[in-house]
Specification:
alpha/beta; two-stranded antiparallel sheet
Length: about 450
């Protein structure tokens, strides 16, 4: 019994330890909703997913693709994804918290000098070219024009435009210069990361048709009021000289507004996992940049204090803040509750095994007591019988009880004192039955003293 209990306990404890190790060390796979399909984000997230797989990291990404950011945000909102690429001015999930900025976009509105378009109000009655045709960009532009008392017209207009109407003209990127030369547009707008190669190329196309290479940039002068009016937008400053250094273009800083593509996590994602995936965004940036330049534009969201970060209009996940402030938890802090629970379960298992062992030991002692009681009864019954056949039946029963005791001794290894008592009881019962059988058949034979028979049994 002792060996079996120890073996079972060892197997159970090893199994429990193995299960705990598997649980603690297995990779965490997060489903991430990615959009827009024609943007840089699908390639960026794929590059990160490949880098995580190649590094055998503890967190992995399962990509769920969508056509636009409204759908990816909805996937986070309804629980189909743990992470999502979100553009807050399009749809901000109520359960979404920011991990990182994938790219900041600014509204760049430029025209060749001298066009006279220096403010939004001067766009009235003008034709505005636009590159990428995204619903989100249209929404942003409509809001800004409406703030300045202008309306946006997307259908081709015949004849003269009204003084408060802005005609939107789709233009391919490579055809921007030609559109200015053919006077199909008066200004060009793009909502893009200002330092992106494409943005620099677009400004270069405007500059190529400008007199003396001078470009007029339209600034958003009331950016604070606009952000207050449309809180999902953000203020952006295009630094002077970003596009060229000689001559400096733009000549001075240009204040404008824009939107950001963010990696957001569901609010219920644990701080530990959120901190881990945020850490990987920056540690794997070099590896991801080998596949896409978009990795170079990933940055941390700006905030001044932890309270400001968690209470902002677009709040930051506490786990991401742990990473940014270098307050990530160690192994014991991360898995302390789990280890405590496993320890409690292990202690409970040991207690159960001890109880089982005690209970089985008690049952075994009860079995020996039953055998002893029956042997005593048989001894008394034999003296009262005179039928040789009935006496022979008691002999068979004693033999059966003796066989049970032998099996018990081989399996359980009981103490010697107990077995000595049982041996004496068996020998006494057999001797009594033997004497009673002789008496019943009329034979007269002197029986050997019991202590001699016991001694002979011990020697055997």
């Amino acid at each position: 019994m002792r060996r079996e209990v120890l073996l079972v306990a060892s197997v159970l404890l090893l199994g429990l330890a193995g299960a705990a190790a598997w649980y603690l060390l297995r990779p965490t796979t997060l489903t991430i909703a990615v959009a827009p399909k024609d943007g840089t984000e699908p390639g960026l997230i794929k590059a990160y997913a490949d880098a995580l797989d190649a590094g055998n990291e503890g967190v992995r990404l399962k990509i769920l693709s969508f056509d636009d950011v409204r759908e990816s945000a909805a996937a986070l909102q309804d629980g189909r994804a743990d992470l999502a690429v979100v553009r807050p001015d399009v749809l901000l999930p109520t359960n979404g918290l920011t991990l990182a900025i994938l790219r900041d976009q600014a509204m760049i509105l430029a025209s060749p000098e001298p066009s006279g378009i220096k403010t939004f109000a001067k766009l009235g009655g003008k034709r505005l070219g636009i590159g990428a045709q995204k619903d989100a960009d249209y929404s942003l532009l409509r809001n800004l024009l409406s703030y300045h008392g202008l309306t946006l017209e997307t259908a081709p207009a015949a004849g003269h435009l009204g003084a408060t109407t802005v005609q939107l003209v789709p233009v391919e990127t490579e055809a921007v210069a030609a559109a200015f030369k053919e006077k199909r547009i008066d200004a060009f707008l793009s909502i893009i990361a200002p330092s992106a190669p494409k943005a620099i190329a677009l400004v270069g196309a405007v500059r190529s048709v400008a007199k003396d290479g001078k470009v007029e940039f339209v600034a958003v002068e009331d950016d604070d009021a606009i952000i207050e009016r449309f809180p999902k937008l953000q203020a952006v400053t295009i630094p002077g000289g970003l596009f060229t250094g000689r001559p400096k273009l733009p000549a001075d800083d240009v204040k404008t507004v824009g939107a950001s593509y963010r990696l957001m996590a569901r609010s219920t994602l644990s701080r530990v996992v959120a901190a881990d995936i945020t850490q990987q965004l920056f540690e794997k940036r070099t590896a991801a940049a080998l596949q896409t330049d978009a990795a170079e534009y990933v940055l941390a969201p700006a905030y001044e204090t932890t309270a400001a970060a968690t209470s902002a209009r677009i709040p930051i996940h506490p786990g991401a803040i742990d990473y940014y402030e270098r307050e990530q938890h160690g192994f014991v802090e991360r898995y302390g509750d789990t280890l405590y629970l496993l320890g409690a379960l292990a202690g409970g298992l040991v207690s159960v095994l001890a109880w089982v062992r005690q209970r089985l030991s008690r049952l075994q002692h009860e079995r020996i007591d039953d055998v002893m009681d029956r042997l005593i009864e048989i001894t008394g019954q034999a003296r009262a019988l005179s039928d040789p056949a009935a006496i022979e039946g008691l002999t068979v029963e004693v033999d059966r009880l003796a066989a049970d005791v032998v099996r018990y001794a081989r399996e359980r290894e009981p103490d010697s004192r107990t077995m000595s008592a049982v041996a004496i009881a068996i020998d006494t019962a057999r001797a009594t039955i033997h004497d009673c059988r002789l008496a019943a058949t009329g034979e007269i034979r002197t029986a050997r003293p019991t202590h001699l028979r016991v001694a002979e049994m011990g020697e055997g």
